[in-house]
Automatic annotation (TrEMBL):
Top-level taxon in the UniProt lineage: Bacteria
Protein name as catalogued: Esterase family protein
Matches recorded under Pfam families: Esterase (PF00756)
UniProt cross-references to SUPFAM superfamilies, sorted A to Z: alpha/beta-Hydrolases
One Gene Ontology molecular-function label: acyltransferase activity, transferring groups other than amino-acyl groups
Source organism of this protein record: Candidatus Limisoma faecipullorum
Length: 277
């Protein structure tokens, strides 16, 4: 009995360790013609992709101060999720870009890089299902803003999108996170600050154009702006999943959020597989 109990305790740990190490991680430097530089990118491919097999892709955007090598790879189980859910996960470096093409700094064109150059590169070099019904994007904090911003502006590329504790309206934070370096001083360039929030993109979004999942912790400094986004989406009758739960702006909260988002996208991909069969 003692041996059986020990096996019962150790087996999940052994399996988790196996799953974490099974997937393959490529660390790339992808050239951006729009910025004339190479950008760091991590690509997670599930274990045992068969010859001829094609997989859906999730683009995962990091937050301010992070990069493609830290955060998700070191502090979450994203590799295990990629294995279990049979999806490719791509995490690009976003610097402090907020993932738009800066109107004041032509060297920061991360909207073009992520949604055009990188998508094209990944579809050319990996066994993807290269259509919007098998391509999703999400991210946390700055990356949550980026994911919704890019998905709404590039509905031809993405079929689903999410935001975890996203900075979906940064206007209340004019001195934070290098936003003024990307948009100019708020007082001097107010139109830049108005045009580049997620809220400002919503008129481009038609009902059912994107499958959306959004969450934020109730102790997060972005909680209010996420609630405002939820209210505006509801007013416009845009279907979306919106979840709040106790939590702050930290990895303890995002570890669960990431799992929930990837499961949400997995269901979306499977629905499209069923419709095509």
């Amino acid at each position: 009995m003692k041996i059986l109990r020990l096996i019962a305790i150790l087996l999940p740990m052994i399996l988790t360790a196996f799953w974490v190490e099974a997937s393959k991680v490529d660390t790339l430097a992808v050239y951006s013609a729009s910025m004339n530089k190479k950008v760091g990118v991590s690509v997670i491919t599930p274990e045992g992709v068969d010859k001829g097999e094609r997989l859906p892709v999730v683009y995962l955007l990091h937050g301010y101060g992070d990069n493609h090598l830290h955060g998700y790879l070191k502090l979450t189980e994203v590799r295990r999720f990629a294995d279990c859910l049979r999806m490719i996960v791509v995490t690009p470096d976003g610097d402090s870009s907020w993932y738009f093409d800066s109107p004041v700094d032509s060297t920061f064109r991360y909207e073009t890089f992520v949604s055009k150059e990188l998508v094209s590169y990944i579809d050319s070099h990996y066994p993807t299902i290269a259509d919007r019904n098998h391509r999703a994007i999400t991210g946390l904090s700055m990356g949550g803003h980026g994911a919704l911003y890019l998905a709404i502006r590039h509905q031809d590329e993405y079929g689903a999108a999410g935001s975890m504790s996203g900075g979906v309206d940064f206007r209340p934070f004019p001195e934070n996170w290098d936003i003024k370096k990307r948009l100019g001083e708020k007082g001097e360039y107010p139109d830049n600050w108005e045009r580049n929030t997620v809220l400002a993109q919503l008129p481009q979004l038609k009902p059912d154009a994107l499958r959306l999942v959004i969450d934020c912790g109730t102790e997060d400094f972005f909680y209010e702006v996420n609630c405002n986004l939820h209210k505006e989406l509801s007013r416009l009758k845009i279907p979306h999943e919106f979840t709040t739960r106790p939590g702050a702006h930290n990895w303890k909260y995002w570890q669960r959020s990431l799992r929930d988002h990837l499961l949400f996208f997995s269901d979306f991909f499977k629905e499209n597989d069923s419709e095509n069969n």
